[in-house]
């Protein structure tokens, strides 16, 4: 969604309105998964949440775990 540089979270939408917490959380989790190359333990550790919490949030937001690279 974002035209911001990698690692920069855009707080406003295209209309200058604040984005929802759900939208921001989705983007944060997606970035963390990508940064950890799909390693869920590392993703959860980096976000300072438990893996079960990470999986619950992913299920709530309809995430799909990325396929491993290589």
Describe the structure.
By secondary structure, the protein is mostly helical. It has a single domain, classed as Homeodomain-like (Arc Repressor Mutant, subunit A), CATH 1.10.10. 47% of the residues lie in helices and 0% in strands. It has three helices and no strands. Helix 1 packs across helix 2. The mean pLDDT is 88.
Radius of gyration (Å) = 13 Å
Q: What's the CATH architecture?
A: Orthogonal Bundle
**Separate helix tally:** 3
Largest sheet: none
What gap, in angstroms, lies between the N and C termini?
26 Å
* Structure class: mainly alpha
Q: Give, in order, the helices and strands.
A: HHH
Compact summary:
The chain contains three helices and no strands. With 70 residues, it is an all-alpha fold.
Key features of this structure:
single chain, mainly alpha, Arc Repressor Mutant, subunit A, globular, 70 residues
Helices and strands, with pairings:
Blueprint: H1 21-35, H2 40-47, H3 51-60
